[in-house]
Amino acid sequence: MGTQFVSVRVMRVKRYGGLAWLRVSPLGFTADPGQFVMLWVPGLEAVPMSIAWMDSLGAEFIVRSVGETTKHIHELKRGDAIGVMGPLGRGISSVMNVHVHKVLLVGGGSGVAPILYTAGVLGARGYDVNIVLGFRSREEAGIREVFEHHGVDVTVVCEDGVGGPCDYEGLVTEPEFVKKLVTSADVVISAGPLPMMKAVYRLAGDKLIAIMESIVKCGVGFCGSCRLWPGGPLLCRDGPVFTASEIRRLLE
User: Where is FAD bound in this sequence (predicted)?
Assistant: First the structure.
């Protein structure tokens, strides 16, 4: 099934500091973990959004407020209409080795969105999955509730201390147990800010599969705004899922 444009209704919005959990009515299409959509709010610019969850009852997104459209998304009410174009890009299945069994998922900030959907799908397929999430604050780490809502167990590392939803203090790659999980995993799938991805790469090397973030305007490879470097791949067409070898120049 190709890319579709659908109108959906907002079912729920709950904020956790600068992040918001958005649930909408069913999209009417399926997507591979790592793929994304363009969300359109009437009267505003469309924005790229990773899929955080998808089932027969609806779809979910984790949205950071960084601009006019995403700020408006945080303020949506139940019943509001928005547009969704997708699925877009390349997902996890295209790069997963058939011999992989143990998977470590590492997410940071709004990058935890594709980690949730990936965890749900891989867990249902029988993979042995561990998940570690990193956040700037305990307030944003409250989004852990969304993972628990879907029965997905996680360990949370926060930069501003322990307590509440936070299990460890520091950067997500710092705890010793994370380094041990990286060593024992067959593959490490990570999504989040580039500095975090570089830190994960330093631990995982070529075991890393990265779900990248970039400015995306059109979502279909026409405008070139999401090219990762001059002459390099387009995130919206060639990604957002990449092997470490495909984007090594960004990670080193």
Answer: 62-64
